């Protein structure tokens, strides 16, 4: 096999990637006095039971601060610091007397909020989703109380501790050197195709998952793969590990999760990328907020970065 390019171009353009300037400030999570001191000047993300965020009439994040609500952090989750200002997430059910003009879902926010705010929304949604589904201990069924500003669940009955979980999955742009492999899932909108993805299983490295998932879903054999970047995907709690892969030019066959899979030429992909999605015909690709779309763009712009011998 030929030499791989040592430093692949960084993937970008997808939502929820976060900001290097945001400090999760782990050391403050157990410092109740410090969090109380930060509360009056803090900004708050309020989410309802469906995971939607409180927004103003235009759909932007509702401007709520700790001073307006009064009191202290209470059962809210401390997300971290941005330029020294604290951010907290809390459930709408814990509030009273706050008028919320509208509620906005995460996908809509990703399309219209600033990228850093959409990333914080995704972070908050992932944490509150974990809280909502871990109120009882998975070991003994006892009640779980959350500590360390929302990052530790402790069972009062058996004493076990529980921590936020993330489910790693691979998502991969598979090429035979000339074409790109895409698949369709049942229930997707007509004409929608995307790259292959699947969850990492216990005892498996992500590179092994790439080989296994691509073969299981399409019968295409991967020869080599390389990591390119990652996207938190809080629907509800995945971490998408983006790869490119070089595969044999096998004829795709589906038997299970996908309803169809096929190879697409560079010309077909280029035409699809140029569309805005409103045309009545032609290939539709993954939404722009997704790492899937970035992987497709990366392949189209750079070709098969992994080369054959």
Compute the CA-based radius of gyration: 22 Å
Number of strands: 15
Let me know the largest β-sheet: 6 strands, mixed
Q: Please tally the helical runs, counting DSSP H or I stretches of 4 or more residues.
A: 7
Shape: globular
Uncertain segments: 1-8
Q: What share of the residues does DSSP label as strand, in percent?
A: 25-35%
Helix/strand/pairing category = alpha+beta
* pLDDT averaged residue by residue: 92
Order of helices and strands: EHEEHEEEHHEEEEEEHEEEHH
Share of helical residues: 10-25%
In short:
The protein has seven helices and 15 strands.
Question: What would your notes on this structure say?
Answer:
There is one protein chain. The chain has 309 residues and is α+β, with helices and mostly antiparallel strands. 23% of the residues lie in helices and 26% in strands. The chain has seven helices and 15 strands.
Please give the structural blueprint.
Layout: E1 22-23, H1 32-38, E2 43-47, E3 53-55, H2 66-69, E4 77-82, E5 85-91, E6 102-104, H3 106-112, H4 115-132, E7 144-147, E8 152-155, E9 161-162, E10 167-175, E11 180-184, E12 196-199, H5 206-218, E13 222-233, E14 238-247, E15 260-264, H6 266-274, H7 291-302
Parallel strand pairs: 2-5, 10-14
Antiparallel strand pairs: 1-4, 3-6, 4-5, 7-8, 8-9, 10-11, 10-12, 11-15, 13-14
């Amino acid at each position: 096999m030929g030499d791989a390019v040592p430093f692949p171009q960084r993937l970008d353009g997808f939502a929820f990637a976060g900001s290097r300037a945001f400090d999760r400030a782990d050391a403050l999570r157990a410092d109740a006095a410090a969090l109380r001191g930060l509360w009056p000047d803090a900004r708050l993300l309020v989410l309802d039971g469906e995971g939607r965020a409180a927004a103003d009439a235009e759909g932007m994040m509702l401007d709520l601060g700790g001073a307006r609500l009064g009191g202290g952090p209470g059962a809210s989750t401390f997300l971290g610091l941005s330029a020294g200002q604290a951010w907290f997430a809390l459930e709408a059910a814990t509030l009273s007397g706050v008028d919320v003009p509208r509620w906005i879902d995460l996908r809509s926010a990703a399309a219209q909020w600033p990228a850093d705010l959409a990333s914080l929304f995704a972070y908050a949604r992932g944490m509150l989703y974990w809280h909502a589904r871990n109120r009882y201990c998975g070991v003994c069924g006892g009640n779980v109380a959350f500590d360390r500003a929302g990052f530790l669940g402790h069972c009062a009955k058996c004493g076990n501790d529980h921590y936020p979980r993330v489910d790693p999955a691979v998502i991969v742009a598979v090429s035979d050197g000339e074409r790109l492999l895409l698949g369709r899932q049942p229930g997707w909108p007509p004409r929608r195709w995307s790259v292959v993805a699947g969850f990492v299983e216990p005892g498996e490295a992500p590179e092994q998952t790439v080989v296994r998932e691509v073969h299981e879903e399409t019968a295409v054999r991967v020869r080599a793969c390389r990591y390119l970047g990652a996207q938190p995907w809080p629907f509800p709690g995945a971490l998408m590990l983006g790869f490119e892969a070089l595969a044999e030019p096998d004829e795709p066959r589906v038997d299970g999760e996908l309803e169809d899979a096929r190879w697409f030429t560079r010309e077909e992909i280029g035409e699809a990328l140029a569309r805005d999605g409103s045309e009545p015909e032609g290939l539709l690709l993954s939404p722009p907020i997704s790492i899937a779309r970035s992987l497709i763009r990366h392949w189209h712009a750079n070709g098969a970065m992994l080369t054959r011998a």
